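for the writeup, i need someone to sanity check this before i put it in the appendix. the sequnce is what the collaborator sent (i think, or maybe the updated version? ugh). structure was predicted straight from it, no edits. if anything looks off just tell me and ill rerun, i have time this weekend
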Amino acid sequence: MSEELKCPHCGELFQLDESHYMQLSKQVRDKEFARDLEKRKIEIEKTNASNLEIEKMKQEQKQEKLLKEKDLELQKKEQELEKLKNKLLNAETDRKLAVSEVMSEKEKELTKKEKELDELKNKLSKTDSDKQIAIKEIEQEKEKELLKKTQEILEKKNKELESKNAELAKLKSKIEKSETEQMFAISKIEKEKTEELSKKKEEIFALKNQMEMNETEKKLSEKRLKEAYETQLKMKDEQIEQYKDFKMRQSTKMIGESLEVHCSNQFNSIRMTAFPNAYFEKDNDARSGSKGDFIFRESQDGTEFISIMFEMKNEMDTTATKHKNEDFFKELDKDRREKKCEYAILVSMLESENDLYNNGIVDVSYRYEKMYVIRPQFFIPIIALLRNAALNSLKYKHELQIVQNQQLDFRNFEENMLTFKEAFGRNYRIANERFQTAIEEIDKTITHLQKTKEALMSSDRNLRLANDKANDLSIKKLTTNAPSVRKMFEGNE
């Protein structure tokens, strides 16, 4: 059912029905649902990451538990096998006892019958001679009966014996079958145990081989590192001696320039093999009032992943004023920041007797961020070290950049969503307020019309009553309390 509403401000008429209201509600619900779904997706991803770690720990614990269970199961199987063996031995013993008991019973019965015959014969021999014929007849009859009874007993005993033999055969067959089944089960269990033991042995052998290989690789790696270190140490010692001789032959003015030339020649000698795409030039930009000696930069796929500001410092041992390396840290850090370099390196021959700077690469980041002090022999190694480290982290930088871009896109999307939501909410709120105002006005109109209706209904009732009263009106009723007027009407009549 649609209603035509009039805007109180512009006076424009518009239609508003349930379908329009449902469309507006659906749009709001869909946007809210999409935002909640995205939020829920992010929460699920975080939960999955933590669950993955937990599941990994659970799997490790589960594997340990399974190993323990397998060991317990092996022990149980061995115990069951021992019980089955004992049971088989007991069953064989019981069978032998049963056979011996049956045979002893049969022998006892035969002995008893023989005793009975002997007793009868003895009784017959004790009779008188006069009765020999009768006795003979009786004896014959008795013998016949005895023979008959003996045959019956023998037949009965044979039948019983056959029955016992059949039962014994069945029992023996059953025992043999049980023995077969038990032997089959035992062989199956033994086979399973053998397979499990074989697998365990294979796993142990593989682990031992892996450990041996790892140990061998470790020893080889240690040997290679030791040899490389010893070679480098020998080369550095030779370089140190060369530099000491070189310093003694140089003048104060030429020392710094010679160190720059030396480092430049070192780099250029391996530039095309080790750093073919790198930028390594003198810093000639002195617009800020100062400059370094060299700048090293390298990029990949248009992304700069390493940049170094170099400063070379040296002086003769006979120079009156001795400088320290720390005297140049502040200026070097200033040049690094102005030239937008990531690292700052001071290549120094100063403080030649200081063990801190003679032991190798010195990290002075506790004074100035990403700053190192080195001797000239470590010029190429530190470039390679920092460059390789930055190259390894380039992948993670790309991934981080992708994530940052995604987060930026998500923030932009979220901001657009919030902007749309706010605009839509504002328009919806205005429309709702106007709708409510219109509804209130309609309610007021309905209330007013209801009051008018009630007034008309009341008027109709009063008119009906008046009509009834008019129809019921008569002279008699009018003159009920006016007898003189009644007489006047009667006189006129």
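The longest strand covers residues 303-313. Strands lie at 3-6, 13-16, 279-282, 294-300, 303-313, 343-348, 362-363, 371-374.
thx in advance!!
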